[in-house]
Write a structure and sequence with these properties.
Chain lengths: 280, 346, 335
């Protein structure tokens, strides 16, 4: 009897230790990765990094300014394509579709698209935009990112709009406001904070994407202000530079990695704080 | 929300105006073999002319495909296309530089040029038939060199590559078994090994993994301080890769008599010839759609022919001799036409 | 279609604002409100439909672009292991094998750890630590995959080849799974980095699901003298079974489609080796490496077909995950 009890106690002890260990494991990796990205990355950051374009191998100096601009351009464009579409679709789900069959199919498809392999989206955009129109371009890259963003925005917009209580809608409707106006000036306003947070997260996520850009926005070693030309991005440049054999390329890649990781983490943390502020 | 929209539209407006004012940009993609040279050239050219030439090294296979698909203004490849393929794809091909592919090893204690190999042994290593560094066939070639009892890790290209084309072309010439099992091409069915993307990828893997052998373009071997192996050439001499040994291989080439200028320089008979040498080519459309761009591309390569030789040598490439580049410019004038008018003419 | 509707709405706005008559103001307002309502509803409906259309379009375009290869190889494409661009013979088996095996490795490593984390967060962590630790784990999910790949190549691969793989070879080398040279890149390293990437997904979904277990169930467990582990093992896990399986499959879906990290670490070799230390390839890595470089139409078409296969596999897996999670949240657990 006593033995049995001790066995149970031991099993309990072992299992709980394993569980604490798992949490520690996750956190160790987070800090391990962040430590390396920050230490190697900081060493690479200097004024040139933010002001110069890439130099050929063997040439000293050079920077990532063109890639920073490219990432900003493509991300902003993708946001301009993906966010309005996503919010409207989310509006349908929350305000009109609700429990309709279409709405549930849209939800199902969005949830699958959220996790669809991003490289396949790149192949898709290559087939519909790059090949027929003869060239890699910032626009093609932005479309690929917008497609990846769309389902995320649809679902968060819906969730956030749903949080607005029905009583609020009914009150506004009772005052004689048309449904669309209620949606725009009452429901949207009520859910603004949540939607903005969702958009921030979606933007953060796509700004770190690489795979869909390989065959769409391609890469460029110079400044590019033309949306129909190949454009450098931080992530694709990291891919090329990290795979490259030159030490100064690796340095640059770490610098870019730091920049993108810090931005994404910052946005994620800020949006978390916003959400928490709302709950509390 | 509205503020966001205003921001976005302001941003777009900036772009529209920037687009109108921007200098022209030429896009090229392909071989990784000459990439350091092309990026050096374009860096200098941009300083002098404000014309930007964006070259992305994605592999020769990619260069050929992207120029065929018309997604770039020129392609670059180390694998010469035949006259018939050129005709079918509406392409013109011309050499820009000559270089060599070099077997590189990462074995503890082995320094550059210390290891001697023959073509047959190299082929059998890549076939997986020679699996250990202290295999008798390797030690027989290298008396007095201590080789470890470790497995050989073979590194090859994971992408379509002209370097692979030249390398596998050489292996197919010296090993009938290689020819039968793997053949030659920009990408082959590798019997063994790890795949690295681009010359860069192979160089990185050879540097990072112990007991490896890989093959990279000479400039990559030099710049990355990788240890090359000596090879036995057709004349029976063990030679080191160098500008001289590449030049020796190129000397016998008959540019004029080869249709499409697709000269192959592997396993040449000259006494001092490096056996895995090759030229690297540029591909442009024979009947380009955008005439102005086509002309700018040719202008760049003309500039490179006239002013680029010293830069090429500094980066360990053999520049194309003057008589050959003259021959090429004559061919441009004759063959490349836009709206049935010649694009090139000084 | 959506464009059409947009134009319509633009036109309507002009006519309503321009026709604000004095007499029938309220009537007009009502009718314009109705029209605007219909338009707004129509536009949002169109965008909602566009999500479905998009999915269909991706599928159609992939099928169309891979038609050449489907016609040439038929179903044998899936079970042929030759990938020979010279002979123009393509088989997807090495890529499919690599995708599935690396994902399974990831799941085998990630599931116990993720569940451990979820249990820690719901049942054990002091309240003050719950938030920060949960956030820290979720931050792992927001690190871009290219960073995992780069870090994996520069830091983790040398670490594996120096310390972990020699150990595996020395002590488990009798198993065919752990033979070969300690390269630091290959199937196992790819699976390992994937595991780190999917841990946050599985752990956060399972944490949410664990929190849905009614406390009365757990309390009755403690009431009869069960240990914490017994409550977890015999009450929480059975109650949340389908939800947890859903979470695991969700993680699997992520792992299958992951590209950059795998491309850096899997070694890119088109072959099927039993040893997990040997280089392999996955569908996504093959695409990332070869897509811009395939010369011949058939080659390219075969690559697109690989993409199609990946799309279908992830679709099935994710649909399954979603159904399981939905079943859990609608009906509660099934004891």
């Amino acid at each position: 009897m006593r033995l049995h009890y001790q066995k149970r106690k031991l099993a309990n002890y072992v299992a709980l230790t394993v569980s604490v260990g798992s949490a520690a494991f996750g956190i160790i990796f987070l800090f391990w990765i962040l430590k390396d990205v920050f230490t190697f990355g900081f060493a690479a950051l200097n004024v040139d990094f933010f002001t110069q374009v890439s130099a050929p191998p063997g040439e000293s100096g050079g920077g990532m300014a063109h890639a920073i601009l490219g990432t900003l351009t493509i991300t902003v464009l993708a946001t301009a394509f993906g966010v309005p579409a996503g919010i409207l679709a989310g509006t349908y789900l929350s305000e009109y579709g609700r429990k309709s069959k279409t709405a549930s199919v849209v939800r199902f498809v969005s949830d699958i698209l959220v996790s669809a392999p991003s490289i396949v989206i790149g192949v898709f955009v290559y087939a519909i935009l790059v090949k027929p129109f003869g060239g890699f371009s910032a626009i093609a890259g932005a479309v690929a990112l917008a497609i990846i963003m769309l389902p995320v925005v649809v679902r968060t917009a819906e969730e956030m709009l749903k949080l607005v209580p029905d009583a609020t809608r009914e009150a506004a409707l009772a005052l004689g406001a048309p449904h669309w106006k209620v949606t725009v000036s009452v429901v949207y306003r009520g859910a603004l904070r949540g939607i903005v947070t969702g958009i921030m997260l979606a933007v953060a996520r796509v700004s770190g994407e690489t795979a869909p850009l390989l065959f769409t926005s391609f890469n460029n070693s110079f400044w590019n202000f033309n949306l129909t030309e190949p454009t450098a991005t931080l992530t694709v440049t990291i891919f090329n530079y990290a795979m490259g054999p030159y030490e100064d390329w690796h340095q640059m890649a770490w610098g870019a990695a730091l920049l993108i990781t810090a931005t994404v983490l910052l946005v994620t943390i800020i949006s978390r704080i916003i959400v928490r502020g709302r709950a509390g | 929300m509205r503020r966001l929209m205003i921001l976005v539209s302001a941003f777009m407006l900036c772009f529209a105006s920037a687009k109108a004012a921007s200098a022209e940009l030429l896009n090229g993609a392909g071989a990784t073999f000459p990439a350091p040279l092309y990026s050096k050239w374009s860096y200098e050219y941009a300083k002098q002319t404000k014309m930007k030439l964006n070259y992305q090294s994605i592999g020769s296979g990619g260069g050929i495909k992207q120029i065929m698909a018309g997604t770039v203004d020129f392609g670059a490849s180390d694998a010469p296309l035949g006259a018939k393929e050129l005709k079918e794809a509406d392409l013109v091909q011309f050499p820009m530089a000559i270089g060599g592919v070099v077997p590189v090893v990462n074995v503890k204690g082995i320094t550059a040029g210390q290891l001697k190999l023959t073509g047959e042994v190299l082929a059998d290593i890549y076939l997986g038939k020679i699996a250990k560094w202290n295999d008798k066939r390797i030690t027989d070639l290298n008396p007095g060199v201590s080789l470890p009892d470790e497995k050989i890790t073979v590194v090859h290209r994971s992408d379509g590559s002209g370097t692979t084309w030249i390398f596998s072309n050489y292996l197919a010439k010296v090993s009938p078994e290689w020819e039968k099992k793997a053949g030659f091409g920009t990408a082959v069915n590798w019997p063994a090994g790890v795949g690295g993307k681009g010359n860069e990828g192979v160089a990185t893997y050879v540097k990072r993994i112990k007991n490896t052998i890989g093959y990279v373009e000479f400039a990559y071997a030099v710049q990355n301080k990788l240890n090359h192996a000596k090879l036995k050439n057709k004349a029976g001499n063990f030679v080191d890769p160098s500008m001289d040994s590449f030049m020796a291989a190129a000397e016998g080439a008959d540019w004029k008599g080869t249709p499409g200028f697709g000269v192959i320089l592997t396993s040449q008979a000259a006494k001092g010839a490096w056996p895995i040498a090759g030229a690297t080519f540029i591909l442009v459309k024979e009947n380009p759609k955008e005439c102005a761009k086509a002309k700018e591309v040719l202008k760049f390569f003309d500039w490179a022919y006239t002013n680029g030789a010293a830069m090429a040598r500094a980066l360990d490439y053999v520049p194309v001799p003057k008589n050959v580049s003259d021959l090429m410019e004559q061919a441009w004038a004759k063959e490349i036409k836009c709206d049935s008018k010649p694009v090139w003419g000084k | 279609m959506s464009d059409n509707l947009k134009e319509n709405s633009g036109g309507l706005e002009v006519s309503t604002s321009g026709a604000d008559g004095y007499v029938s103001l309220s009537a007009r307002r009502q009718s314009s409100g109705k029209l605007a309502d219909a338009v707004f509803k129509g536009v949002s409906y169109a965008f909602a439909l566009s999500v479905i259309l998009l999915m269909a379009l991706v599928f159609i375009v992939l099928v169309k672009e891979s038609w050449l290869s489907i016609k040439a190889f038929g179903f044998s494409f899936v079970y042929t292991s030759v990938w020979d661009p010279v002979a123009q013979e393509f088989g997807a088996l090495p890529s499919i094998y690599g995708t599935i095996v690396s994902s399974i490795i990831a799941i085998v490593i990630a599931v116990p750890i993720s569940l451990g984390i979820a249990i820690f967060l719901t049942e054990m962590a002091p309240k003050r630590l719950k938030g920060p630790i949960g956030t820290a784990i979720e931050l792992l999910a927001s690190i871009p995959s290219i960073i995992y790949g780069m870090w994996g190549l520069f830091v983790f691969a040398p670490f594996l080849s120096e310390y972990v793989e020699p150990f595996l070879i020395d002590y488990f080398g009798f198993l065919p799974l752990f033979t070969g040279a300690p390269l630091g890149i290959g199937m196992l390293p790819a699976g390992f980095i994937l595991a780190i990437m999917i841990i946050p997904f599985i752990s956060s979904v399972s944490r949410d699901i664990f929190q849905m277990v009614p406390s009365i169930l757990k309390e009755s467990g403690y009431g009869v003298g069960a240990t914490k582990w017994e409550v977890i093992w015999k009450i929480v896990l059975p109650y949340t079974r389908s939800g947890v399986i859903g979470a695991v499959i969700l993680g699997l879906g992520r792992a299958l489609g992951e590209t950059m990290a795998v491309t850096f670490l899997i070694g890119n070799a088109q072959e099927i080796k039993l040893s997990l230390l040997d280089p392999a390839t996955s569908i996504s890595a093959t695409l990332a490496n070869e897509f811009t470089e395939a010369v011949e139409d058939l080659y390219l078409s075969s690559l697109v077909e690989l993409g199609l296969i990946l799309f279908v596999i992830t679709f099935v897996v994710l649909a399954l995950a979603k159904l399981l999670i939905a079943r859990f949240s609608y009906k509660g657990g099934n004891l």
